Amino acid sequence: MGSTQPEFKNPATTTLLELVKARRTYYGLKAESPISDEAIESIVQDAVLHVPSSFNTQTSRVVLLLKEEHQKLWDIAINIMESLVAAGKVPKEMFETHTKPKLNAFRAAYGTVLFFVDYDSLAAIKEKFAIYADKFDPFALESNAMSQYLVWTALCSEGFGANLQHYSPLIDEQVQKTWNIPASWKLDAQLVFGTPASEPSEKTFQPIEDRYKVFGK
Ligand SMILES: Cc1cc2nc3c(=O)[nH]c(=O)nc-3n(C[C@H](O)[C@H](O)[C@H](O)COP(=O)(O)O)c2cc1C
């Protein structure tokens, strides 16, 4: 997809773009890891440290859950959904045929990275730069998304498959309690990862011409 590859000065640029293309959504995952837990930690920590944030506010917070701790997360989601079914808020049929198998597939993976934003930490800078006050929250979320993307891409580069989930606010309270998460950390996304058990589905692309313009070439 896209234009033919030009010559880059740095071969790492080609590699980087290959990794960008190789990152996909994998739903079929196994509770196995191609790399050490320390290597996973290193990816996550590098994302926390080096992904940029507006005014270097460093608003992203990340929790890495591996193995049994990861399973605990998806047990929480399953239990909450079951209670919604019991309360008549979610149709039983839909839960049994659709939601439960999906949640069990997440549970069958190796780990989950929880991405949070600490919006409270922005109070001082919002006061200092009042003119931008309403921009800081969206900037913080954008920075968080950059971390999600980097970790997703790096994990795929190491032979993992991963998918990005959003079970907030459903699971927030239990997550906070279970892992003693500070109240100011607001959960945004959950990146589920494991060794791929199946291929990603086919991906279609809108024509690049409809989505991109260049001037001054
Ligand atoms: C901001 C964002 C939110 C997403 N949320 C979800 C989600 O809640 N559940 C899910 O299964 N996939 C989610 N996805 C995955 C997208 O559906 C997927 O990235 C897209 O279809 C392109 O496929 P690819 O990841 O294989 O390139 C999300 C992706 C992005 C970028």
Report on this model:
- With 217 residues, the protein is of the alpha+beta class.
- It has seven helices and five strands, in the order αβαβααβααβαβ.
- It has helices at 11-22, 37-50, 68-86, 92-107, 123-128, 133-157, 172-178, and strands at residues 29-30, 60-66, 111-118, 161-165, 185-196.
- Strands 1, 2, 3, 4 and 5 form a five-stranded antiparallel β-sheet that branches.
- Helix 2 runs antiparallel to helix 6 and helix 3 (68-86) packs antiparallel against helix 4.
- The longest helix has 25 residues, at 133-157.
- The radius of gyration is 19 Å and the shape is globular.
- The two termini are 21 Å apart.
- The relative contact order is 0.21.
- The model has no long low-confidence stretch (mean pLDDT 97).
- The structure holds flavin mononucleotide.
- Flavin mononucleotide binds at residues 24-25, 163-166, 200, 203.
- Flavin mononucleotide is lined by residues 24-25, 163-166, 200, 203.
Mind sketching the topology for me?
Elements: H1 11-22, E1 29-30, H2 37-50, E2 60-66, H3 68-86, H4 92-107, E3 111-118, H5 123-128, H6 133-157, E4 161-165, H7 172-178, E5 185-196
Antiparallel strand pairs: 1-5, 2-3, 3-5, 4-5
Helix pairs in contact: 2-6, 3-4
